């Protein structure tokens, strides 16, 4: 009516924040809000997803994205080519959030190639070999030859010799027994003596000898090796007698004094004082 005025639109206050009339914003929980006539009106965000396998909304977003694909719980990048877990040779590709898959064409009856035999439920071609028929994948040996193994692969027979291990024994110790495919090493004969490399002397097994030092004794072991052991001497008297060719000094035969040997109970003058008399006592 003439003389009246329209009041201006009122702003809104929402959670302590002023909002101008007609403004739109998004709240937490993907709520779309607008200010109308001083009131705040909110509703859930409506998402339009134009792809079949969108990725979940990124952090801080509300709507799924078609910049990649989510297939069987696995995130795929744009352009990624993959095979599903139960695809049986199926190939899939991620394009703009959509997953497209292509499966091999499986002809009825026998398989035309070995690759299709692994992907399709067709029957691989059998093998006809020396008057016998073998199914695909069957392994067999040649007649009378257990050392050759053959396998049927899509109508073709492939044979190979049984691999033999490398032997570390010389040729004269190798032996091929009846019915064996590979040679084995014979056990070497047991040694009967020991050889010393320095002088070529041979000692029978069990022989004990001294190599030149009376305090060292050696024995020829049953495996042909030589074991030596030294004797540690413990002197039990202050003036022992050293006998040539004997390892340890002898304290029971007498005494050694100033380079001279005296028998038990023998008296002799002291080399330091001619008025002193010494006696050899063996204890």
UniProtKB/TrEMBL annotation:
Residues 10-67, 67-128, 125-186, 192-252 form the VWFC domain. It is found in: Secreted. Gene3D superfamilies: 6.20.200.20, Complement Module, domain 1. InterPro entries: vWF_C/EGF_Fibrillin, VWF_dom. This is VWCE protein. Its main location: secreted. Keywords: Glycoprotein, Secreted, Signal. PROSITE patterns: VWFC_1, VWFC_2. GO terms for cellular component: cytoplasm; extracellular region. One of its GO terms (biological process) is cellular response to virus.
